[in-house]
Amino acid sequence: MSDDDRDDARDDALPAPAPREVAARGAPPNLPRILGSVRPRARWLELRLLLVVAAGLVVGSVSLGATVRGRPADGVPLLDPEVWMPHDTVALGIYLGVLFAGHAAQVLAGRRSDQVLLPAVGLLGGISLLLMERLPQDRVGSGFFGAEGLGQVQLVWLVLALVVATTVAITVRSDSWLRRYKYTWAAAGIGLLLLTFAFGSDVGGQRLTLTIGPFSGQPSELLKVILVVFLAGYLSENRALLVEQDTKLGPLRLPPLPYLAPMAAMWAIALGIVVIQRDLGAALLFFGVFLLLLYAATARISLVVLGLAAFFAGSAILANLFSHIGTRIAIWIDPFADPLGAGYQVVQSLHAFARGGLLGMGFGNGLPLVGGRVPIPEVHTDFPLAALGEELGLIGVMAILGVYLVIIERGLRIAAAAADEFRGLLATGLALVVGIQAFIIAAGNLKLLPLTGVTLPFISYGGSSLLANGVVIGLLLAISDKGVEPPPPPRETGWRRFLRRRDP
Amino acid sequence: MDGFLLVLWLVRILFLALLYLFLFRVVRALMRDLRAASQSAIAELGRLLVLASPGDDPPAGAVFALDAITSLGRDVNNSIVVEDPFASAEHAVLTFRGRDWYLEDLGSTNGTYVNGNLVEGVAPLGFGDEIQIGQVRLRLERARR
């Protein structure tokens, strides 16, 4: 980002249209070669930001530990190290170790990728770890590697997500496997969706979880990545045709009819998810990403307006046909109509935000137990923002939402600098999928939108969500690398390709 | 207020302050990055890379920085002179309007092709697309930052 970019900008200053041989873009010799041809490359900005993240997480853990252990016994000196120990030194140490190992791996591999994403995600993951350590541990059973309880299982998933992100960032050097097989990816995604429709198990009235052998997960988390890959491929190839206007519908001017078919298919899939899976959140997420990518590719607001109108019309009809959607909307409009029944979670969430106030009650001090249970039953998956709002206050929640904004900005910046349309749309979609998901669930917690069961990226408990978002960050890092393989030439579509002599 | 609660309160405030220190440092880095990008964006809107050129004028591998309007053809008054027997004197013009690139064929004898398709009138163009004029093939690329 910082030092590298200025070097590159200088050697790219071109004389006006005079032809120029492309100079070999050699790396400035700043570190010696090791590991054969790989030259390590320092990432100072990332290191500095990671140090701030580490300091913040240690202080947060100290705050949590002192609050949970409570007032020291009489006679213990005030600044005794025993009183001001982090809450769980081992877990925090493992997490920070993996975070810095991810940084070190990218330095050793000599990647010139984005340096802000890893610290931003590391901060959110660390806050997630502190929050899960502090909630009642009996919400989940045991996980892999002998992990017991919410905090340890979440630690395992966080570590795996960071490993996945770093591995994808370092090993993916070419995007042709995403670009060329977009219809294969789409078929795999639809297959996954149908499998969930057919064999998914119902949890809390929503058919979200698919269990295959010993593995169980939420396919919609993986599906969102596949959807972005497919849309980026489809829209980058057909952009020119979508911009054309030859279908007129009243005042709206639309692309040729055959190219509207995929949009109709997307609309049907989104509504199908609502009806069969009863998953309003995933439908909202998929359709929102679809419309925003369509707008990014074509700059035509009429398509977005039409899509939104179709989605709201479909949802309005479904809300009258199916009671569970109608209930969600009734809760959203007035949760206090039934504060102990249907509206219970949302009411408790609003109370939690209110108790937090401006500065919060401090880590470990919020969420008073009611009859041995936290007031919000699904706090670790659906309401982590409410818990953070109570413990860190408005100030803390604003900072966390700010970190999501930073992730979106980085994604859009990577898209703006991408070498071609496909990579640009892919980066846009990956950033927006994280951003929209965070918005949907944060707005649900705050009663700005109807509450839906999507996770808060990088903070909510859950393996599928963390691993899928790890893949998203890994891909963004891989695309942003300046040394990534140049995009392949576009596929020729005209008949003249049959006459073309192959270049040597 | 006793000492323990006071120190604990300070630790909590310190945690929030560190969150904002992180955001401040990130935003400062982002602003620097955006400023550098906006300065270099003035220099060129895009670039044309010559992929294949049998006559070697322009040579294969050459890179042209693009302005908003770039004319292509065999005549020496074009911004990019394509010295190819199958190119017309005023062959095509490449323009950047708003946010998009367009390629217009100026009634050339042998036509202009985008990704192998004959251009009729004006064709929208994206980064990564290939243009063919005569036997010369060029690729539109994003300006390097």
Q: Could you explain how this protein is built, in words?
A:
The complex is a heterodimer of chains A (504) and B (145). Helices cover 60% and strands 4% of the residues of chain A. Chain A has 504 residues and is mainly alpha-helical. Chain A has a 3-stranded antiparallel sheet with strand order 1-2-3, covered by helices on one side. In chain A, α4 (117-134) runs antiparallel to α5 and α11 (301-321) crosses α12. The longest helix of chain A is centred in the C-terminal third of the chain and has 33 residues, at 384-416. The radius of gyration of chain A is 25 Å and the shape is globular. By secondary structure, chain B is α+β, with helices and mostly antiparallel strands. Chain B has 1 helix and 11 strands. In chain B, β7 and β8 (117-118) form a beta hairpin. Chain B is rod-shaped, with a radius of gyration of 26 Å.
Look at the helices and sheets of chain B and give the structural class. alpha+beta
Structural class of chain A: mainly alpha
How would you spell out the order of helices and strands of chain A? HHHHHHHEEEHEEHHHHHHHH
- Oligomerization state of this entry? heterodimer
Topology record:
The complex is a heterodimer of chains A (504) and B (145).
Chain A: H1 3-11, H2 44-69, H3 89-108, H4 117-134, H5 149-171, H6 176-179, H7 182-199, E1 201-203, E2 206-212, E3 215-217, H8 219-243, E4 247-249, E5 252-254, H9 261-277, H10 280-298, H11 301-321, H12 323-333, H13 344-356, H14 384-416, H15 421-445, H16 463-480
Helix pairs in contact in A: 2-3, 2-4, 3-4, 3-5, 4-5, 4-14, 5-16, 7-8, 8-10, 8-15, 8-16, 9-10, 9-11, 10-11, 10-15, 11-12, 13-14, 14-15, 15-16
Chain B: H1 3-41, E1 46-52, E2 63-66, E3 69-73, E4 80-81, E5 92-97, E6 100-105, E7 112-114, E8 117-118, E9 122-125, E10 130-133, E11 136-142
Parallel strand pairs in B: 3-4
Antiparallel strand pairs in B: 1-2, 1-11, 3-5, 5-6, 6-9, 7-8, 7-10, 10-11
